[in-house]
Amino acid sequence: MTVRADTSRELATRPLVASVRDLRVHFEAKAGRVHAVDGVSFEIRDGETLGLVGETGCGKSVTARSFIRLVPTPPGIYAGGEIDFWSTVARRTGVGPIDLLEIPHKEMLAIRGDRIAMIFQDPGKALNPALSIRSQMAEVFYQHRSEEILMSLGPDVPWIIRRAARQQSNSFESILLKMPPWRAKAAGLRKKVDELVAHALTETQIANPRKIMDSYPHELSGGMKQRVLIAQALACHPDLLIADEPTTALDVTIQARILELIAELQERLETSVLYISHDLSLVKEICDRVAVMYAGRIVETGTTEEIFSNPAHPYTRGLMAAVPSATHQRGKLAAIDGTVPELVDPPPSCRFNGRCPYAVDICRTVDPSDIDLGGGHEVACFIYETSLDSSVRPTRERRTS
Amino acid sequence: MTTVSADTGAAQQSTDDRAVITLRGVEKYFPIKEGALQRVVGHVRAVDGVSFEVRPGETLGLVGESGCGKTTLGRCISGLATPTGGEIYFRLSDSDAALLDEIDSIPESELTAEQRKEAARIDRHHGIHQLSGRAWRTYRRNCQVVFQDSFSSLNPRQLVKDIVGRPLRVYKESSGQDLTEKVVSLLESVGLGRQHLYRYPHQFSGGQRQRISIARALALDPEFIVLDEPTSALDVSVQAQILNLLHDLQKERGLTYLFISHDLGVVRLMSDRIAVMYLGKIAEHGTSNELFEDTRHPYTDALLAANPDISAEKSEMRGLHGTVPDPANPPEGCRFHTRCPVATPACGWEVDDAVAWLQTNETLLAGLTDVERRSNFDATLVFGDAATAGAVGDAMRNGDMPAPMKAALDDVSTDETKVHIRFSPVEPVELEDIGGGHLTACVLYTSRGTG
Fold first, then answer.
1. Chain B, 192-251: which have a CB under 8 Å from a chain A CB?
2. Do B319 and A339 touch (CB under 8 A)?
3. Complex ipTM value
4. How big is the A-B interface in CB pairs under 8 Å?
5. Does B240 contact A1 at a Cβ distance shorter than 8 Å?
6. Does B42 have pLDDT greater than 50?
7. Tens digit of pLDDT for each residue in B387-436?
């Protein structure tokens, strides 16, 4: 939240962490090809929080999952575009970015959970109910910090312990504990991992981390489970944290605490955050920049101040008017009529044309391109296309049915 | 249909001096069963003594976090669950309500025969769980529900025509072509049409399914509708459409709503009056404006502070510490005191709070072996060794125990490995009128705190 004070200009000069260009993710269905994500481009800069807002089915989660290639293929198809990612090391050494959609699976495994981590929507489903919190957290360290753990055990580590650490196998580690010759070393291994886990849990302000470590997910409340997930995601101090509606399943009072925690950890660990949400009012509170998604495309991007004080796209305007606020008096809301269009083989057009009060012929036949309104505020709407002749251009004044 | 209009017509004559729904001390306890014999070992107090009334044509909003009992209360009112205590009255006139108040204020043994007879009459005619078969049917048709999840509340194997027409069939209102026409007009009133008659629920979007639910609820032209989070599963743009629809229907048909939600913005938009629930009890109750502009309960304050608001200039969202306590063993005094940022010594501190405080300190908690309770306010903490017991005693007397809890401690004495603690006993905090029908259950604002 402190980053919010920075001006847009300052944000724009920061180094890039990720750059998404023309990302297309499609799904093969019986009825045809569903264009779930259809030409999405945005950038995430160092230390910023980018909010990706949109309604159900607009493709925001698929976009997020593409970062760590979690979209199941098939039926998913990465149909085009690239996601460039600069890790801290790459940025320091001046090495170019890696394309997350192109790198081999093994490299992806090394990045997932280490350089890019994700917090999922439902903490109840994201944790394995059969494993203790300790062993679920330990997995992260076995996966990404095995060298560090081995170093701490001293120089004369038997090969079998080395193997145990590299194989990322929890069960193997517990079998080792029962083998007399290596018991001392294995106990050391266990102690080191316990320390790492406890430290990660303490960072998320969990009181009594040692007690939590030995409990199982069902013993914890929703807020506590989400804290564990955050601890797990931030355990390796990732460069990019993807938060996919992390508070939707929580009560408002708990939600506020979780958001405070994410903001505080983000500042301390200098992590960039891609925050996905359907809740505009929440995004307004926590994000530096906002990208509004509709039906697989980004319709508007800009700084939070700009988007909320001066929304340009008719969809953004409609969405904001439809959010009930605690300061609203009793009465009616300005709703957007109609429903989200089908995304099966859509024709070139503005996806919002069926619900837009200003739509004219051009909106129904041509894809709008992004128009820069200055200050990093971009909008994909023909209203702002000044090069177009005014007779074919939609205007906010003229309403056509 | 004629019977309906005659029925509502009769009701309309006297709408001014009666409430549609009156709750008096409603309780719903769920038994906790254990062991092979399923012995009852305790009760989850989902709803614990709730009283309010809903007047004709108004909307009462019921807000609270998950697990506070708001849905259970809605189910009790709609007759889907039977309260274990208290009574819900339908169309209770103000004079009868006053009579019940009077009877309640007299001890059971001192009631005259006349008063007993009166009470029995009111119960029989208005208390919904003692109604005769016929009156019960009248109640059921006049009190409809719209549920949160339109996936599970619409039968996936029935056509829309059957779903919406079902209440009309059950109450033998119409059949055949007449039924179809009635269903069409109902569908039209919720923004759907004839083309949707012969479709299944899965062919509709979430917003449309919720419209079908609303059409079904309207089928019998009810007086009162319980809306149990009707929009929480919907997107904002669709939510706005549904809220507007509900608003219009209320104006057209003079409906009375009980609007249950966890979203303060939505509740403010929809409600004339709002009741805030916490752990089975009402914490604050007042008109929407009073509640939002002149909040008189720290829990409402906390909800407002935690609610992200799109129209606010710049707000810092503040959350609450801790979690909602176990409703099987609710805290003494004010139920909110365990999480309250402005708690006083008079809020009902008890042994559980002291133990919960110990849990924040790993070394002290590790030494705790047993808690011998004499009451919720009086107990002996047994520790493994005298040193820890001494440390705990010291911490309680002059350490970092929260100030209000420390002030509520009457007595702390250390005896070898044991620490005796005694809190001053406190009565449960009840709702109290603080002027103009604004009720709160907080000692800071009621006579108990100032007195």
1. 205-208, 235-241, 243-244, 247-248
2. no
3. 0.82
4. 145
5. no
6. yes
7. 888 888 888 887 778 888 888 888 888 888 888 888 888 888 888 888 88
